[in-house]
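re: ur question from yesterday

yeah so i grabbed the chain u mentioned. its 158 aa long if i counted rite. heres the sequnce exactly as i have it in my notes:
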Amino acid sequence: MSNPPPKAMPTLDWKLVAFETLTVAELYAMLQLRTEVFVMEQNCVFQDMDGADDQALHLLGMHAGQLVAYARLFPAGVKFAEASIGRVVTRGSARGAGLGHVLIQQAVAAVHSQWGTQPIRIGAQARLKAYYSQHGFVDVGVPYIEDGIDHIEMVWSG
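ran it thru and got these structure tokens back, copy pasting raw so excuse formatting
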């Protein structure tokens, strides 16, 4: 039995927007994708709408009119002393072609284009440590449980 061929990377249209400029359709798609993955797929009951979306920039990766990749970005001093990236998510049907890696690259580049090259701190699910390490994030030894899931703080310093 052979492995199926890898998926082809979809071409995405990227958009970076402030909360107040999200369209109703973009807001709905963003919340739907986050719920689909973080609540339903990961079987985790938590308050996704945490009151911080209005302080973030929202990175939307669209393919054929559907939101397939998303992250929210914060300037230094909002979530952490450093700039930060969170709610990093790709749609299940779009996984397997490296899209998550492109999403992280786009998110880091967007932080730097918006607020200058600087350290970026994330609260990563511990199981994704190797994934984020591939992008230059380093475990800074601050493990914690959030919504019943092991997390670690990681920092990108360039």
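noticed a couple things. The longest strand covers residues 137-146. also The mean pLDDT is 92.
anyway ttyl
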